[in-house]
Amino acid sequence: MEASHDDAEAENRRLLEEQGNEGSSSELSGRSSPFNRLASIDIEGLNDLEIGKEAASTQEGPQKNRATLVAWITINTLATIGIIFTNKAIFSDPSFQRCQVSFASFHFLVTALTLFILSRPKFGMFTPEPVGLRILLPLAIAMSLNVILPNASLQFSSVTFYQLARILLTPAVALINYTFYSTSIPRPAVYALIPVCVGVGFVSYFDSKVPSNAKVRSTSFVGVIFAFAGVLASSLYTVWVSSYQKSLKLNSMQLLYNQAPVGGVLLLYIVPWTDNLWSVNNASISKWMLILLVCIDVNTAQLDG
Fold this sequence. Notes:
Layout: H1 2-91, H2 100-118, H3 133-155, H4 159-166, H5 169-181, H6 187-208, H7 221-248, H8 252-268, H9 271-274, H10 285-302
Helix pairs in contact: 1-10, 2-3, 2-8, 2-10, 3-7, 3-8, 5-7
């Protein structure tokens, strides 16, 4: 009987200890609940902060792209203006008047060398993608004419006429796209191009007309022919570049990396028949410095692609 009584007391003490442990556990859990709520609030705050950062970076992305675009457009515009005036100064020198083809070939080879350096892993500006010679040959010919004919026009015409004639590039590209690719432009844009074409026609007539009291004219008839032929070649080249990029899935630098050496070497075969390289022996150092400046301007203008 005493043993059973002792067992009953031990069982009662065990039950009381278990109830005390459960009470202390519930008390501790009750005390820790505010900390749990605080931790959840902190986590939610961190999530909101991360979302805010992502939204800010998303808004900064287009602004950076817009600023980069404006910067490259400005650089391209300034480089193009520099190319025109330096080319005019170079071709006004009798030593370079019959070096149009070799001048273009030199530019292409310098461009090819520049792009080769920029494609190396140290710079990594783009990844070269090889293209077959047969595919590139028509584009390389158009690229060559795109440079030679405008330069010849600049030799026989004024800078004012040259610049205005180049404005015809926009309507010519629109016409080629509409004729061969069935790509149209909005009607208001067509109406805006009409006075442009009429204005270039007026300038072509009056700038090439010989005044009665003048011995020389600023723009010759040959200059006008070269100007319009250059516009046609440049328009065709512009359309083809876009078409080649889409079909070959290349960016502008990858495409130029392939076509520049082909165009440079191709023109070397024409140089003996068209240019007088012996005349450059009389060129001054200042003219060679201008040629170096043109090379820098050309490659700067082409890097926005």
